[in-house]
Amino acid sequence: MVGREKGPAAPRMTLPTQLVLRALLEEWTHEFYGLQIGQAAGLPSGTVHPILARLEKLGWLESRWEDADPAEQGRPRRRYYKLTPDGAERARIALAQARTQVTGLPVLRPAPPEAPHDRLGPRRLHQPS
């Protein structure tokens, strides 16, 4: 179709996305299954798998199902992920740009120990009876 645009060329560089990309770039030529990536990134499976799906849709990753029989292994089949050469390069660039954007932010200062209460007063977890 004429005039039809593709989706974004890069994912939103959220902190979880950055952690997943860093984990994958450690040994970018190797395949890893989702749980390994999650452990390396320090993220739960429910966070990692949607990120992997987005990266694969963008062409940064390729994946395959293992050939093992789940009954013989006593577990579900694993899906293995690997950065493509182009995906590895794009990941490096995106991470460098994300770092640059973060370093350009002003330094955040911690709140004073006794921050003033808002106009409603201190917040309570339980209302008195």
Question: Can you tell me about this structure?
Answer:
With 129 residues, the chain is mainly α. The protein has helices at 15-26, 34-41, 45-57, 70-73, 85-103, and strands at 32-33, 61-65, 79-83. Strands 1-3-2 form a three-stranded antiparallel beta sheet. Helix 1 crosses helix 5 (85-103) and helix 2 crosses helix 3 (45-57). The longest helix is centred in the C-terminal third of the chain and has 19 residues, at 85-103. The radius of gyration is 21 Å and the shape is globular. Residues 1-7 and 118-128 have low confidence and may be disordered.
Q: How is this fold's topology laid out?
A:
Layout: H1 15-26, E1 32-33, H2 34-41, H3 45-57, E2 61-65, H4 70-73, E3 79-83, H5 85-103
Antiparallel strand pairs: 1-3, 2-3
Summarize the structure.
This protein has 129 residues and is mainly alpha-helical. 43% of the residues lie in helices and 9% in strands. It is built from five helices and three strands, in the order H-E-H-H-E-H-E-H.
* Strand-residue proportion: 5-15%
Provide the structure class. Answer: mainly alpha
**N/C terminus separation:** 66 Å
Given as residue ranges, the uncertain stretches (5+ residues, pLDDT < 50) are 1-7, 118-128
Physical arrangement of strands within the biggest beta sheet? 1-3-2
Number of helices: 5
**Estimated radius of gyration:** 21 Å
Largest sheet: 3 strands, antiparallel
Query: What is the general shape?
Result: globular
Let me know the average pLDDT: 81
For the secondary structure, the number of strands is 3
Helix fraction by DSSP (H/I, runs of at least 4): 40-55%
Order of helices and strands: HEHHEHEH
Oligomer: single chain
